[in-house]
From TrEMBL:
Family to which the UniProt record says this protein belongs: Belongs to the UPP synthase family.
Keywords assigned by UniProt, alphabetized: Magnesium, Metal-binding, Transferase
Function: Catalyzes the condensation of isopentenyl diphosphate (IPP) with allylic pyrophosphates generating different type of terpenoids.
A single MF term (Gene Ontology): ditrans,polycis-polyprenyl diphosphate synthase [(2E,6E)-farnesyl diphosphate specific] activity
GO biological process, one term: polyprenol biosynthetic process
Subunit text: Homodimer.
Pfam family, one: Prenyltransf
Domain of life: Bacteria
Protein name in UniProt: Isoprenyl transferase
Taxonomic path: Bacteria, Pseudomonadati, Nitrospirota, Nitrospiria, Nitrospirales
Presence of the UniProt keyword Transcription in the record: no
Record carries keyword Transferase: yes
């Protein structure tokens, strides 16, 4: 795969549409999640290949706890199987695995597994793969605020940069590109603080159909954007 030009350093993906994908095929929703997990593997591999430094996958939101218990436990089970099976692949590919979100709400076995995976990949040097698990942006911001307040730091003098170190994403770059599949055009509580200047890319493709060529289209679309960060265009005549 040849991809030249400006590669986004950090890409966030809202992997949506698994349920509809299954429904369209007359299958139970869990089959959509299974197909979605396979696609996630492909996109992780592709992202590492093209030189993305950090990939954040929105895997389970705090709001997703409201789903029927059978679907939640199926998702947890899938995650467990994935992590057990893929750990050696992550290590082989030199990937650093990180989890963000309210991890204490996860079942004990999953919590232990994600933390063990973080430890086992901590000294890797390749792409960072962040899994947003039991995650919501508002909860993350509120937790960060509480941490800052209880750490005894000078709240009056707190800068944006210093505050961001209290977030789950401390030390990670802000996302350059956020992709959402399945035609929904919203953030659904994903990386609210960090997405301030992210480029947003929406596609109608359902997540289980989002393959390498779809990811390539998203990156190429990003490459055509002009990021101004509130300043004026470098292409415009500044006089
Ligand atoms: C995304 O697919 C996966 C999770 C939110 C866990 P959905 O399960 O939301 O699929 P749709 O939106 O119902 O099609
Ligand atoms: C967002 O998808 C969360 C994940 C992809 C993990 P949802 O399907 O939960 O979002 P809404 O309910 O359509 O906003
Ligand atoms: Mg959805």
């Amino acid at each position: 795969m040849i991809l030249s030009g400006n590669i986004p350093s950090h890409v966030g993906v809202i992997m949506d549409g698994n349920g509809r994908w299954a429904q369209l095929r007359g299958l139970p929703r869990v089959e959509g999640h299974r197909a979605g997990a396979e696609r996630a593997k492909e996109i992780i591999e592709f992202s590492a290949e093209v030189g993305i430094k950090c990939l954040t996958l929105y895997t389970f939101s705090t709001e997703n706890w409201q789903r029927p218990p059978s679907e939640v436990s199926m998702l947890m089970r899938l995650l467990e199987v994935y992590l057990r099976k893929e750990l050696s692949v992550l290590v082989d590919r030199d990937i650093v695995f990180k989890v963000i979100g309210e991890t204490w709400r996860l079942p004990e076995n999953i919590r232990a597994l994600v933390h063990a995976t973080e430890e086992k990949t901590a000294s890797n040097k390749g792409m960072t793969l962040v899994t947003a698990l039991s995650y919501s942006g508002r909860s993350e911001i509120l937790r960060a605020l509480k941490r800052a307040a209880t750490s005894g730091c000078d709240l009056e003098g707190l800068t944006e940069e210093a505050f961001s170190q209290y977030l789950d994403t401390a030390d990670l770059p802000s996302p350059d590109l956020i992709i959402r599949t399945s035609g929904e055009r919203r953030l659904s509580n994903f990386l609210l603080w960090q997405s301030a200047y992210a480029e947003l890319y929406f596609t109608d493709t359902l997540w289980p159909d989002f393959d390498r060529s779809e990811m390539l289209l998203a990156i190429q679309d990003f490459q055509g954007r002009e990021r101004r960060f509130g300043a004026i265009s470098v292409r415009s005549n500044a006089s």
